[in-house]
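Protocol step 4 of 6: structure prediction from sequence.
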Amino acid sequence: MNIFNKPHLMVDLETLSTHQNATIVSIGAVKFTFEDGLGEEFLINISPKTCIERGLHVEKATLKWWLTQPKEIINLWKFNPQPLDEALVKFNDFVGTTKNQFIWAHGAIFDLGVIRSAFEACGVERNWKYWVEMDDRTIFNLLGIRNDKIRAQESGHHSALDDAKSQARTLINAFKT
């Protein structure tokens, strides 16, 4: 199967835990193709309170870590937070129902596992199946690409949308000849 000529979407989350049922504070995503580059963008902030009400996890160590981040980064996900269930419906709308669209994240299990837990906690069905989920970190490691260094230069990290865009650009560039 040639995945290069298919539609793709990169997603990145900011969370208040490193557990699979983490409280999500921000979802960033960008659609892309390997031929045309980045396309439509999505960013939504989520009320931590509504995540906690759904039983999602907050971790003391992650909260302490967030307190070491610049205020402007923390403030990014505090602007206009939406209830979790509404945010997931809006994200589903953004993902759409395009057949053969691949959903990417930076890591084999974290972001996509966390968002799956949130969908389950809210009783909302995802618009994609597990077999279209892809992991860019494995590709970067195989190719010797340090996306963490690239993201730090581009956005300073921890803006869900900026990180998603950086990861998508790095993935596209990895396969340019």
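Step 5 (inspection) to follow. The mean pLDDT is 92.
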